[in-house]
Amino acid sequence: MQNEIKETAPVIFTSEMKKDYTILVPDMATIQFRLLRAVLRNEGFLVEILQNSGKQVVDEGLKHVHNDTCYPALLVIGQMLDALNSGQYDLNKTALLITQTGGGCRASNYIYLLKKALIKAGYDQIPVLPLNFSEILGGGKGVRITVAQYRKGLIGIVYGDLIMLLKNQVIPYEKNKGDTEKTIEKWIDLLTEQINQGKCYSFRAMKKNFDAIVADFAAIPVRTERRVKVGVVGEIYVKYSPLGNNGLEKFLISQGCEVMLPGVLGFMMYAVSNTEVSYRLYGGSRLLRRVMRIVGAYFAKIDRMMIEAVETRSQFVAPSPFYEMKALSEGIIGHGCKMGEGWLLTSEMIELCEKGYENIICAQPFGCLPNHVAGKGMIRKIKEMHPKANIVPIDYDPGASKVNQENRIKLMLAVARESMEE
Ligand code: SF4
Q: Is it true that 15-145 and 227-263+319-421 share their CATH fold?
């Protein structure tokens, strides 16, 4: 007989709690989330990005989340429960923050899985704060993250995207080991200072900072040599999270590769642009469509500014503007295919091929049907279009061995090295 889970009313995160509750956030894109933490802290949320990892995280996830659920849900919930178990936090003063995408994919339901897991683990006093668009549009109870705070968070993430992009193009070539890391830390400190003074959010401030960041990374002394260029795409959590992908980015750098990871902003623009597609295909709220058009135009302007800053230096490869990248998958996959990363995965793989990153790792989590269709399912078509494409799908699940994953990647790198020699 299945264990009965007692029903309790969810605890609402109130404004009184904001003062002294530590809010735990699962880690994902490391640089971007450090800046997001700075933004949220400055807005009065005592946010902590979780860094706990290891087998016990997976075990907690397996214990409290149904094993049919996709791997990112299992890890995110496991990481939170493991943190609560650690004894580091006052359980009467701790809350959890989790994203709720609002689409048809399971990411919309993580919050219910988390609440259920909390009850099962005996932590039903812990409030959960959702990060979702219905909160912006006035839904939900308790403390809401406001539109202004979302905007600031987004800008923090964009700065993180730029730093990540430049880091990956400099670190394999740096003459003095550690220069790139120093530049990253310098900019995280500078931006945190500006965030605390509310000074980095205007278009003017962004342009100035983007140019200065690019100039700083361009000034790092580098060796001129050829390296295997590897692009990484996949489900958003396993693509970025070292916990989800067993430190993939670090592993590739240790193998002497130059890595290209498309930014988080692209995913946000994808989510926004899908409202238009939904409206066209299924109808719906005109107001929402208009709001999302304005949001999309705002994102596109920041996207362009960042690309223009990178393009000022010929040694760097800038990503394509979002709508150009989107157009790359037209006629190959329907843009109504928008569960999970949907058509974005296909567009990103084609873009990577066109930018010279033909060696691609497609990170696939267990239990993720949408990304298996739009990622793995599109590889053959992309190889037909780009015969040099060397794409390997890597599966991430609780039972997969890191050694096997790395061996498959090493095999792909061997092919990449051979074709580079040729
Ligand atoms: S995209 Fe895949 S892995 Fe991510 S939440 Fe949806 S089903 Fe799960």
A: yes
- Ligand 1 centroid vs 104 CA: distance in angstroms? 10
Determine the atom of ligand 1 nearest the C-alpha atom of 71. 3
Q: Where are the domains of the chain?
A: 15-145, 227-263+319-421
Mean pLDDT by 10 residues, the chain (422 residues): 52 85 94 96 95 93 88 94 96 90 74 90 90 56 80 97 98 97 98 97 98 98 95 95 95 96 96 91 90 95 98 96 96 92 96 97 91 90 95 92 94 94 83
Phi, psi values for residue 144, rounded to 5°: -115, 145
CB 222 less than 6 A from any atom of ligand 1: no
Q: Which fold has domain 15-145?
A: Rossmann fold (3.40.50)
Whether the full predicted model's pTM is greater than 0.90, yes or no, is: yes
Q: Is 271 in the pocket of ligand 1 (CB under 6 A)?
A: no
Q: Hey, CA dihedral for 237, 243, 244, 247, is it positive or negative?
A: positive
- CATH architecture entry for 227-263+319-421: 3-Layer(aba) Sandwich (3.40)
Catalogue the E-assigned strands of 237-382: 258-260, 359-365
Instruction: Report the distance separating Cα 199 and Cα 60, nearest Å.
Output: 41
